[in-house]
Amino acid sequence: MTPAEKHAQILKSTAKRLGFDFCGIAKAEFLESEAPRLEEWLNRNYQGKMAYLANHFDKRLDPTKLVEGAKTVISLIYNYYPEKQLPHQLEDLKLAKYAYGADYHEVIRAKLTEFLEVLREEIGEINGRSFVDSAPVMERQWAQKAGLGWIGKNSLLLNRQMGSFFFLAELIIDLDAIPDTPLVKDYCGTCTACIDACPTDAIVQPEVIDASKCISYLTIELKEAIPNEFVGKMENWVFGCDICQDVCPWNRFSRPHHEPAFRPSDELANFSNKEWVEMTEETFKRVFAKSAVRRTKFAGIKRNVDFSSFKKPSS
């Protein structure tokens, strides 16, 4: 066994031991085919008010600019699909499934820190950085390059064994490891379920999202007033949106996660419209103390609740 093969074996076994569902390996190199796509997307202003997405263009495409001497990009999948939806979510105000429990950034970041520590213990000094939705890394493209899935029409990574209800994380390291075979086949076929279901027409073409129309963007990233053109189109989402994932046929393979930190609190599990509408800042801080929902701050969540509370367009 060559050193690169042994390293790949260590990476896969460590990922499994830390609870990651899949681990894929890709060579750290410039994402040449993605450059024109990213440039066009930005030129069309599909990033909305997320000006930071136009920054660090080269770093988004070249991992060696994030980690000096980078040789390998490790892509990791971590399941967050809940055992059941929050009981009031079917008819009342809703938040995305990934936000039911603790903030995934903190949960997964701790695992990535441990991952690097294990590698240094077993292999030796390694220069590397970990990422979980926290830096200019094109995570879905790297995951596809590492053979973990393909990019669906909703622009999310789809995995044949578990759909799309998972987080992606990366380690970029200066260690040689045998890369996995990229997945080049598109298993979506002629299905357009996600495009047809999006109430704001955010999916402008397969794999291309106008983020400025996406409910997740409108309820999380947008810091100003939600434009009136979306009145009656939010379908009661107050933080994030799962519509394009809920209708995806591949998510019939989703299975409940095993991460205790992602389980909702009893108080959140009983949140109905009444609790959302009457929520005070004190309640917000208590219920969402460790949640990704904190990103909106109390004023943001109140804005979303007011906007999404069963409003219909005027006739």
UniProtKB/TrEMBL annotation:
Catalytic activity: epoxyqueuosine(34) in tRNA + AH2 = queuosine(34) in tRNA + A + H2O
Active site per the UniProt annotation: D133
Listed GO MF terms: 4 iron, 4 sulfur cluster binding; cobalamin binding; epoxyqueuosine reductase activity; metal ion binding
Residues engaged in binding [4Fe-4S] cluster 2: C198, C214, C241, C244
Top enzyme class: oxidoreductase
Occurrences of domain 4Fe-4S ferredoxin-type (ranges): 179-208
Binding site for tRNA: K223
Keyword hit for ATP-binding: no
Cofactor note (record): Binds 2 [4Fe-4S] clusters per monomer.
Pfam families recorded: Fer4_16 (PF13484), QueG_DUF1730 (PF08331)
Residues annotated as binding cob(II)alamin: R60, D133, N154, L157, L168, S216, C241, D242
GO cellular component terms attached to this protein's record: cytoplasm
Pathway: tRNA modification; tRNA-queuosine biosynthesis
Biological processes per GO annotation: tRNA queuosine(34) biosynthetic process
The EC number(s) this enzyme carries: 1.17.99.6
Keywords: 4Fe-4S, Cobalamin, Cobalt, Cytoplasm, Iron, Iron-sulfur, Metal-binding, Oxidoreductase, Queuosine biosynthesis, tRNA processing
Residues that, per the record, bind [4Fe-4S] cluster 1: C188, C191, C194, C248
Subcellular location: Cytoplasm
Listed cofactors: [4Fe-4S] cluster; cob(II)alamin
NCBIfam families: tRNA epoxyqueuosine(34) reductase QueG (TIGR00276)
Quaternary structure note: Monomer.
Entry similarity comment: Belongs to the QueG family.
Described purpose of this protein according to its UniProt entry: Catalyzes the conversion of epoxyqueuosine (oQ) to queuosine (Q), which is a hypermodified base found in the wobble positions of tRNA(Asp), tRNA(Asn), tRNA(His) and tRNA(Tyr).
PANTHER family given in the database record: EPOXYQUEUOSINE REDUCTASE
Protein name per Swiss-Prot or TrEMBL: Epoxyqueuosine reductase
Organism of provenance: Algoriphagus sanaruensis
Taxonomic lineage of the native organism: Bacteria, Pseudomonadati, Bacteroidota, Cytophagia, Cytophagales
